[in-house]
């Protein structure tokens, strides 16, 4: 069996083009462009890269973005005061607080301060509740992107058994809600699940979101399953690189110049021959996360302007 590659870059490009068209349509109707405010606290290099990528993606589709940087030593009250200002700012449709926050700052209190109708990350408790209740709100970008990928690739979900491995509030839990709403039967596993392999082998759709490079091997998949790899792991061990990507000259060249390479949670080389479809890393789920943030920001703007929102954009 040779697996079909689920191309996240192509689907993300389509979504970005749809958002760009939506922003243009607002402009033609005389409305202002959507606005996103991103808060970056401290100096985590990966977070700085993510926020920069999000800002660039906004610019490309005509969303006005601003990044508000605070030092790692900022107090919680400073952060909350800034969020209050953004909550009241009529030019800001979407607010995101890049996670993780530096130690000493309570992410849950900060996320709960974002106005739910500007919470384009879908992390506010009200939006979490709305997602589980099937009410309009915002779904987090990564699970929302996975649903878009499955929809674009016409992977059927109704009545299928989806097994998610990973129970984070950013991926596993909201994805369970979205897959249930799409009429899949969902098993939510995690690192301490007993009999994990057997659970995974019963999956029609296996979602790997455990954060361990190459953890899922052929023993975790049912022949013909669809596999979604959410892992984005930097590996710096040359032996692990060779085990996971034997003979992959391109990945090795990148590894040699940067000192690391990206690997998903799935041992792609050994799993792909057994399954019907699989997402690559990079180029699978990752590009959809940024694209969905743009979709959510346009949705927030349209709602604020009292305009209808396409059904696919709203959970
Ligand atoms: N950190 C890791 N993933 C995310 C995300 O989707 N949004 C935010 N704000 N921070 C993150």
Brief summary of the model shown:
This protein has 315 residues and is α/β, with parallel strands linked by helices. It has helices at residues 8-28, 45-61, 76-88, 107-113, 125-133, 141-152, 172-181, 196-201, 238-244, 249-258, 268-271, 286-304, and strands at 4-5, 35-41, 64-70, 94-97, 161-165, 185-189, 205-208, 226-229, 233-235, 261-263, 277-278. Helix 7 (172-181) links the parallel strand 5 and strand 6 (185-189).
What's the number of extended β-strand segments? Answer: 11
Listing every helix as H and every strand as E from the N terminus to the C terminus, the arrangement reads EHEHEHEHHHEHEHEEEHHEHEH
Runs in which pLDDT lies below 50 for 5 or more consecutive residues are none
Q: Helical element count?
A: 12
Helix content: 40-55%
Sheet of most strands: 6 strands, parallel
Question: Any idea what the shape is?
Answer: globular
Rounded mean pLDDT is: 97
Strand content: 5-15%
Return the structural class: alpha/beta
Separation of the first and last Cα atoms: 35 Å
What are the distinct ligands in this entry?
guanine
Rg, please?
A: 20 Å
- Largest sheet strand order: 1-11-8-7-5-6
Topology:
Elements: E1 4-5, H1 8-28, E2 35-41, H2 45-61, E3 64-70, H3 76-88, E4 94-97, H4 107-113, H5 125-133, H6 141-152, E5 161-165, H7 172-181, E6 185-189, H8 196-201, E7 205-208, E8 226-229, E9 233-235, H9 238-244, H10 249-258, E10 261-263, H11 268-271, E11 277-278, H12 286-304
Parallel strand pairs: 1-11, 2-3, 2-4, 5-6, 5-7, 7-8, 8-11
Antiparallel strand pairs: 9-10
Helix pairs in contact: 1-12, 2-12, 6-7, 6-12
The protein binds guanine.
